[in-house]
Each structure stands twice: as C-alpha cells, then as structure tokens.
Task: structure prediction
Amino acid sequence: MNECEIKKRALELLSKMSIEDKIGQVTQITFNADNIEESCEKIRKIKPGSIILCWSSLGGAEKQQSVCVEALNILQKTAVTETPSKIPILFARDVIHGHHVAFPVPLTMTQSFDFDLIERSYDAIREEALSDGIKWTFAPMLDMSHEPRWGRIVEGPGEDPYIGKMFARSCVKGFQTKDYSSENSMLACAKHFVGYGASEGGRDYNHTEISDYNLQNNYLPAFKEAIDCGVATVMSGFNDVNGIPVTGNRKILTEILRNQLGFTGFVVSDWNAIAQLHEFSGFSENPKHSAGLALKAGVDMDMVCNCYFDNIKSLLKEEKITMRELDSAVLRVIETKLRFGLFEKPYAKNRTYNKEQHILLSKKLAEESIVLIKNNDNILPLNKNKPVSICGNFADEGEELVGTWSLDYDKSLNKTVREAIGEFNQNIHNFDESNRDEICLVVLGEKREVTGEAACLADISLSNDKISLIKKVKQSGRKAIGVLCFARPIVLGEAKELFDAIIWCGHGGSMASKAIASVLFGESEPSGRLTFTLPFSIGQLPIYYNSLPGSRKINGYYSDINPRHGNYKDCQGEPAYPFGYGLSYTTFKISDFACDSTALINELKNGKSFGVDFSVKNIGNCVGVCVPQLYIRDLVATTVRPLRSLVRFCKVTLPVGETKSLHFDIYLSDFGFYTETGEFIVEGGKFELYLGENCLADNKKTVELI
Result:
C-alpha cells in the first residue's frame, strides 16, 4: 500500500472502533511467559496495541524470560480473532546491539568509524530478532552526551552530532530495510527524545538544562537523521528539559518532533514515565492528570503504567482531552502497523539465518572498534613465538565483555581474554615477579553492571588497586601493555605514562576476546578511533572536542591557553587523548591538502559542492588503515560556534609505500547552523578547515563564503 492507501485504510478501521478499542491501541502491556492463558485474558480485556517482551524497568541489567515464537503466535491469534477490532499486536523487546550474537555496545562500535559495517551488523541483528518473533526494537539510542559518568553513555554514539547522524542512519536502515512492508523488516525506535544524555552530574533520570541553540545543534541532529531515514517510532525521554518533563512537553514532542522535524510515526513513552509525572516529578496531581498531559503533549502509546487505559475514558467524559486527540494517537499507531505489513502477516515464523556469518561480522566490527592509543617503540603487535605474562581483573573475563543490554546472547560463544590469546601463543603465564617474560598484558575493565541504565559512577578513574598492579609490573622490569575493556570513557591518570602500549577495547560483544587477541598479535589492524574524549582528570568534566571558545584563551583542549588565564591552576587543560584519536601499526603522511579559497553561497544553495583534495601515504613498515578527518570552524558568526566540528572522514587501507589521492565533497549544510527556532542558516565569512588524523589536526586552510 502507498501512503494514501494506508491513511484511507487506517480511517476505515478507526471508524469501526469503540472507545475501548481505541484506548487499547495506545496501551502497551507486559506479559508473563510462564502463563500464556493469563496473558491472553489480558489481551481480551485491554486489547493492547503492543506487548513489551521485558519484565522489569531495568531489562538491560536483569535476567529476562526468553522469547518463544509459538507463545507469541498464541497471543497474536487472541488479538486478531478474539478482540472486536482484530488489530494485530506489536511485539517489542530491547534488541540494542545484538540478539543471539552480541555485537559491540554502541559507543564501542562507533569507534570503528565504519558505518557501512555497522549497518550490515544491524541487518544481521534484525534477522536474529525476527527469528524469535520480535517485530519492534527500542533502538537506536541517539542521546549525545558529554558526561562519561552517566552509565547510558555506552548505549549511544558519543559526544559528536555528526557521528550521531551516521549511527542513526546505519541503525535505522539495518533494522527497517528498504521495504517497510516486508515481513523481513523490523520497526526501529529512536530514543530518548530528547536531551536525556545531558542529565545533570551524570545522574540517571535527572534534570537537564539545555538552551534552544544547544538543543537544535547538538541534541537534535541524530534524531533528524533517523526521521529523514523513515524511523517508525520515537521514545520520549525520562528527563525534563528546562523544568518541563519530556513526557508532558508539547513543545518537544509536537512543535519540534512533529512540526519541525516532520516525524509521522508514533511516540511511545519510556517505562512507567507517564506515571512518573505525578509519582516523582510533581508535574501532575494524579494518574488521570498525567495521562491527559502526556496525550496532549504527543505521547501516542503508554508503556506499561496503564495511565491511559485507566483514565482516558473519564478524561473524555470530563472534556479534559478531545476525541480528536485520542483518534490522532490511534491513527498513528494503526498507520505504522499498516506501513510495516503487520495486518497482512501478523504471525511470527521460525526463521533460519547464517549464524556463522553473523559471528564473523561481530568479530570484524569488534576488531575495527579497537583503538591503539599508545605504542612506544612499536612494542605491538606481539611476536607469537615469544612468551608473555598476563594479569588484571579482566584477564579471565569473557561474558562481561558482551556488554549491557544483552538479553538473549549465546553464552557458548564467549571466550576469556586469556583463552583467546592462548590460541595465538600457548606460551602464556600468570604474572609473577620471578618469571622472566619480557612483556606483560595488563587486562583491566569494568563489569557491565556498572554501565547502562541506572549505572552511573561518581568516580571514573582507574582504581588504586589497578594502578598498583601496573606499577608492580613496571617495577619487575617488564613492558606493560594495557588492554583496557571499559565501555565508558575513564580517567587513566598516571597509568597513561606507566603503560608502554595501550589498546582501548570497550565492550566488544560475543567476539570481544577473539578480536582483542587478533589485534594484539597483528592478525587485524587496530583501525578504531575515539568517538569521545578521554579526560586527563575528573575535574575537567565535561570536556569535549567541539566546545565553544571562551571570552579569553582558557579552553585548553587545543592548547589555546594564556598562562595567566588557564582554565585550571591544578590541572592541564588538554585531554589525555582527544576525539578522533587512534594510532596504527604503521605511520601515515597526509599532504597535498588543497581547496579553493572562496566559495559562492548561492552556488552551494543550488546543490553545488565545495571540494577538498589531499593525499595519504603509508610511510611505515606494514599495511595499515588511515582515518583522515576534516573539521570546520566558523571564525565569525552571529552565534558563537564550536572550535571545531567534524564534517567528513573516510577509512583507507594502504600497503607500505603506497599513496592514495582522496577527495571530500562539502555542502552548504556543513557550513551552517540552526537558530534557536530551528531555522537553518549559513552566514558568509571566513572558515578554517583542519585536516588530519584526529581533532587536533594542524593541516589548515582558510576558506571564505561570499
């Protein structure tokens, strides 16, 4: 069906629905997999639009019941044969970064800077989820964040809006496929709209204070990209924005999401979020008041708290809401189900997929996501024939590396880091001060229970016992290689200098340990780059590369400091490692950077691009992957603009001695910004272009738009 036919069919269905049928469609319920008949009875009573296949608000941190296609089909049959409207149910589950085969957590996978690979990975994840009857997932999470203490930073794309846009596109296309109506498609859900990543102090569910300018230019771009790619649903955030909870915020959910960004799908609340308007926020008096506020704001479906089911009928009777408002929400739900072919093929079926292919894909993404951030004297890659020692709290971890929000992963796929390394080198020993191994792998990490939802940390520094272990290794006379398996950015402190080499691995999914071993021994190239800033000190937080200039030289990220006005007296201004940073086992030279000195705004408005040319040469001793990055700074604008903004990057593999000529096309959108009202503008004047291998790039050209 085309869009006109979908809307016509939805109106026909709506005209035959009772008030009870309508209320059911805007209600999502849970169910107990151990008592299917009880769940069928709930369907007969509530006639729900959706069932969430999760049994707690912290599904990513608690064990969940498994999903069974046969059970879901019994529930679906009840809906389409035993309810008056016969509208099929959407079955939803949190499939965040994998299903049976776990892929790296989102913050880790974005380090790959390979968004084609990420799209293929989500295509594989979709295949596995559909095989269990899951048609709707609550992903991607697109919350940009500058706060590494916030546990949910690991579920999103990092600190950069451009990376966020690329991630949004890859996830939505991977989940939903080109043909929405195909039984092979899956509904994606862009969450959490909007600003959840700005939670004050990194404390989950907390207040956020976001200016309209900041909202438009930093927090909305990834959501806009998801909407432009046709994302089916959006989830509203738990947070308030400037004192108004998003769940009851008409400006956010209607004026911005629908009117400005053009979203036409339906909005679902987060878990129990409508009830929280009166239970915690003090924004409403009672459940009825909360339901009215949420529906009027633009929340189309109530996740699990039954505020809509219990109160909409009386709200209509009291004229606190209108039938038109209810009908609008119901139509958006029905249209989405029609768009995704749920009426034609409501039942799930057992599917086959190539699990081995997915395992290889997961391993490749985990490998490409590993970042080499230090390599003194080219100590890496390791020699397979030389003995090594191993120690650290993650040396014998495998399952923890799968990452948070892994509900259905196949535990048989996990190997420990020690086991994976042993496949390359069987001459591996526990660290002992008396043995004579030249190199020691210090494998450190954080458990997944301290990442994800409700898993915030006040101190993200390496603990004293970990620092003591590194010192012990160094004092024994060995070379210390840090294998760091932290899903969030951490403060390395003195470990930055103690280690001879460091690879940053994140939480890499089912194949994490195999990927780590592959990179350590040179079977795979460490081609990952940081999509966040690694701070030097907790006191620097928040620290991010695309910050605004100060009124004096106090920022410090780009060494733009004055000795009299530095940002701290007791700490450096620059980070430990900057955004975009990552080394290779070889060395590259970027040269021949060329572009025109001027560009005409009117020509750019007509779609013409602005060309940037350069060449990259491998001047090292082995094949390697270079990730050239282009940043722009608007030197003079009516609103203060970031010191640098990423606008382009690519990944190029080069043999030893080879040179490759490369080109970036820059468009009007790369030079402009959004005003507080959401208007996109491009102002004439001078811009600096920086080209290099991270945000500290010093190859600079000045361009003037006229």
Summary: The two ends are 47 Å apart (CA to CA). The longest strand covers residues 610-618. The chain has a mean pLDDT of 96.
